[in-house]
Amino acid sequence: MTLETMRPDPVFDAESYGDTVETLAQFDDLTYIVWGGDWCGDCRKQLPEFGAALDAAGISDDRIEEIPVEKLDDGSKEGPKVEKYGIEYIPTVVVLQDGEEVARFVEEEPVPIAVYLADEIRAYFDEN
């Protein structure tokens, strides 16, 4: 595990997120790239629950790429694939299918990361 903040939250209640976990589990050809920093308050707050949701959905480690990011003095982010994916804020999670972006979570939404991405994934596949 590259990011300690992705260690699954032990008090995560998968039953409370049944639809979300089912959606994440349903699409077994998706991969998740997670940019974060163990130093980042937003990441420490949000990523453990996301890690637990992925775990509950049975997403294997080979489908999750965790990328640690450093914050430079000017506030910009530095790390692998930051420029390629235009990462400005963390946590950011990009969901891919065969290299094509399906969904993206950036920093904060009114719902947890897993719920947001599950909604985006369903919407993407409903449209395509």
UniProtKB/TrEMBL annotation:
Thioredoxin domain residues: 3-128
Gene3D superfamilies cross-referenced by the UniProt entry: Glutaredoxin (3.40.30.10)
InterPro entries tied to this protein: Thioredoxin-like_sf, Thioredoxin_domain
Pfam families: Thioredoxin
PROSITE patterns in the record: THIOREDOXIN_2 (PS51352)
Protein name: Thioredoxin
